[in-house]
Amino acid sequence: MFNLDVLSRTPVYEQLISQVEEFVLRGLLPASSQIPSVRSLSATLSINPNTIQKAYSELDRRGIIYSVPGRGCFISDTANDIISASRRTKLDELDTLISQLLIAGITKDEIIERIKNI
Amino acid sequence: MFNLDVLSRTPVYEQLISQVEEFVLRGLLPASSQIPSVRSLSATLSINPNTIQKAYSELDRRGIIYSVPGRGCFISDTANDIISASRRTKLDELDTLISQLLIAGITKDEIIERIKNI
Amino acid sequence: MFNLDVLSRTPVYEQLISQVEEFVLRGLLPASSQIPSVRSLSATLSINPNTIQKAYSELDRRGIIYSVPGRGCFISDTANDIISASRRTKLDELDTLISQLLIAGITKDEIIERIKNI
Amino acid sequence: MFNLDVLSRTPVYEQLISQVEEFVLRGLLPASSQIPSVRSLSATLSINPNTIQKAYSELDRRGIIYSVPGRGCFISDTANDIISASRRTKLDELDTLISQLLIAGITKDEIIERIKNI
DNA sequence: GTGGTCTAGACCACT
DNA sequence: GTGGTCTAGACCACT
Known about the structure:
Four copies of one chain form a homotetramer.
Chain A lengths: L11 H14 L8 E2 L2 H8 L3 H13 L3 E4 L3 E4 L3 H25 L4 H9 L2
Antiparallel strand pairs in A: 1-3, 2-3
The structure holds a DNA duplex.
C-alpha cells in the first residue's frame, strides 16, 4: 500500500503523511475506512513504530484521522475537506509570496531557478 | 528618475515602492538623501499626489524613509539593511512553503507552471 | 456601533482602528465575524469611503482583519493576540525609554508634565 | 567632582555617564577639556577601574569624549550637540510612543501611574 | 514650500 | 454586492 524511501532526504514520517493524504484525495481511503495499525505497518514496511506513530499523531492533530484506543485508526469524515483546504491555502500563500517577491524586484526566472535547486 | 507604467496590473504605488528600494540597494539613494517631494513627483510623473503619498507612507512605515512634515522625505540610515533583510526573509519563506507543497504531493513542475501564470 | 469625532485632532481613521481593536479586546467582535463593508460604514458614519478604506487597510496589514475582495472584511483568528501583544510591547518600550530619560538626567516630574501637555 | 552611589539600582557606570553629560550641558566641562584618567578616578571614588573604563568607552563610542593614548581623555567639540540631540531624540520618541499608547486606548493617567512606579 | 488627512467620486476585478 | 486603486482637489499644521 505505502511506498516509503528511507534513503530520501524527505523524512519518512512526512512521506507517510503525504501518501495517506494522496490516497484520501484519490478516494482510495474513504471516510471511516480503517488504516493499518502502527504495529502492522511497522512490520510490513520495516520502519520503526515510533516513526509510524509520529505520522499518525500529526494526521490526528490535523483532523485527518481519528484513533479509537483498542480498535485502530480511521479516516475522518472531514479528511478530504481538510486536505483540500490545506493545499488551497498553501497555494494561495505561494501566490501572495510570489507577488511580494516580484514587487521586491526578484524575477520569475530567479524564483524558478531557486525552486529547481531545492 | 522613476519609471512608472500606469497601464500595468501592478499598482502604481507598488511600482514606486519597488523602484525606491531598488535605488537604495544600488546605492543611488544613500542614507539621509532627500527624495522628491510628494507634489514635485506628482507633477513630474503626472501621478496623483495621493498615490505618491500612499507609496511614501508605506516606505515610512517600513522604516526605509522618514518623513519630516514641512521638510520632506529622507532615506533612513537603516534603509539598505531593512530592504536586504526583508528580501532574505521572503526567500526563506518561499523555501519553507515550497517544501510543504512538495510534501503535500504537489510537484515542482506544477509549482513552476503556476508561477509562470501569475 | 462606532463613534467617531471628525473634529478631534486624532485622525478619523486612527479613531476607527482604535475602536475596532477595543471591540475585539472586549469580545464584541469575535474571530471570523464580519465587520461593516467600506461603503455601508461610509454611509452610516457619513465618512468618506477612502477614510474607512485607510483604516481597514491598516488593520489588514497588522493581521487584525483579513479582507476578501468581493466578499467583505472579517476579524482574524489571531486578532486578539496581536492586539494584546502590541500593547504589551508598547508598554515595554515605554519602560525602556523612561529609564533612558531618567539616566539622561530628566526627572520623572518633567516627563509626567510633558505627557500631560500632549 | 563626581558623586556616585554604589548602592543605587542604577549601574555606577550609567551614573558616571549621566554626570559627565550633565557637566558638559552646564558648561562645566567645555570642549577639549581633560577629564580625570581612569586610574585617578578609580582611586578617588574607590570604584573598580573596569567600571570607569566601561563608562569612558561608552562616552567615546557616542563621540562625547575622545581618548589620546598616553595623554588622557578629552571632551569632544561636538559633545554638547550630541548630548542635546540625544535628549531631544529620546523626548521625541517618548511623544511618539505616548501617542501610540493613547491611540491604543491606554489613558494618560494609566501611563503616568506606570511611570511613577518605575 | 513640506507632508498628512480627508472629501467626492470613478473604475476595476471578483463573488 | 465587495474591496482596491486612483484621480482631482481642499485644508491643516509646520519649516
